């Protein structure tokens, strides 16, 4: 086998691949599928195949910004959206009273069904092998690049590219009150040898923390004391899903609230909370605080909302959304039973905190390849992010770029105006993160262009040219694009007669077209189509895109102008061999950050924390002199 360095006596040569993906969480599944779709021979290796695509925290996909990312994954040929549609047990639209840039879908999923469907998808993928094993370390060639990996069972696999998707397993430690022990999520074993191997390679590591709420037995919940939160019908994540294709139930979620007694119980036990006793060392997410953190930080509030969410169809396990905790188990039971509807609550699983190792993402290139170790790609929570959607998006990108490197293809990169994927990666590799990173619409300065309704228009062609999108998906996209073009042209060309307008109670205007009419706030596409129906029925996806593009035409045009100004700075490339110490006039902090991060353009340099506008002017003058 070529490429492997000399092996230890207990190791044997088990196989050779173009790409090896370590870990079968949401990042690893999308990474392996993307690499195999590009015709790279791919191995997906995981400690527990039964934990494939495990959703250890909330039983939901989507939400603000995240739903856009799921649609982008779908537009690039990924699996998450399609499997979510097939496994969902409730779906709702969020932020419907706001503009299209922040509207979102959120689906509750049957977690066990989601896992089964994803594993089936992996096993059907040509060129992809799924293997159980615990990776004990990376194997490097003499030049310091990746050559393969070894497992604790003695197998050694050769590959010039490896994608590490270790999730929260890397040196994982679960904490419940005074109890703390090595573990991955939901009792699965932690990845200890791999963590030690990465440290031995000299990768600077950091410690992050996340938490997950308790799960309750539904028989112990008095749902009559809570508020029903029903779902909606006819909503899907994937552009391929046809209406009615998946005959799924719509199970409600339930809303209840904490109260002053709940908070008193928590305050009385703060001395036993690992978050405050010093047991927890890792940095947790500010945007998703534990219930004990909420009680301390928002002491003026006398209640916090919480949702009871089913974890699957036909099961009894309910997830207590909004109540993550690391308090002792008996304290959890006490404060839960103080809440309306939960006075007889019975735990199936206690809440817990989990600490894990991750890297500083500033070590990565925009392709998600490590700057110092060629062929080493990383995706998901090992890069300091949180969330299934963020992990899956990174996995797709890292897997595609690992395959592209193996096969001599162009890397797949997205700018901040093209995709939330571009925002996510640029934030990580340019700004880094000091806490678990989560996507928000506020992070995307061009969010009116990056809507969930138009992800296919933005990315499907890119995915098709890269080889990620198959012919069937491409034909569906082309048909939709043609329908969109025809319907927009019809609305522009149709001039209603004055008598028609009067008959419908519409104030006549000169040179009125259906586009002019649709721009009025009181008109929707649905009403226009009712009065002046198209010759061929238009899909709901096309109707949504037509309405948004027409109603927000002026705002979209202004944002595109901003993008053009942005691109001018992105096109001003910095020399790869530039010596910033010779650039006179840089601030000391700017000099330090530029030397460390080595941005590829003026635009990227301007997004680095600590690089001031004055530093950017200095760099522009430097480039002009060099030119």
Task: Explain the overall architecture.
The protein has 627 residues and is of the alpha+beta class. The chain contains 21 helices and 22 strands. The mean pLDDT is 93. It has 4 domains: 15-209 and 356-466, FAD/NAD(P)-binding domain (3-Layer(bba) Sandwich), CATH 3.50.50.60; 215-355, Elongation Factor Tu (Ef-tu), domain 3 (Beta Barrel), CATH 2.40.30.260; 488-559, Arc Repressor Mutant, subunit A (Orthogonal Bundle), CATH 1.10.10.1800; 572-626, GidA associated domain, C-terminal subdomain (DNA polymerase, domain 1, Orthogonal Bundle), CATH 1.10.150.570. Helix 1 runs parallel beside helix 10 (388-407) and helix 3 (80-87) packs across helix 4. It is globular and about 90 Å long.
Characteristics:
627 residues; alpha+beta; FAD/NAD(P)-binding domain; Elongation Factor Tu (Ef-tu), domain 3; Arc Repressor Mutant, subunit A; 6-stranded antiparallel sheet; 5-stranded parallel sheet; 17% strand
Poorly predicted runs of 5 or more residues: none
Q: Supply the CATH class of the largest domain.
A: Alpha Beta
Overall number of structural domains: 4
According to CATH, the homologous superfamily of the largest domain is FAD/NAD(P)-binding domain
Q: Look up the CATH topology of the largest domain.
A: FAD/NAD(P)-binding domain
Gross geometry: globular
- Supply the helix-strand structural class: alpha+beta
Number of helices: 21
Would you count the extended β strands for me?
22
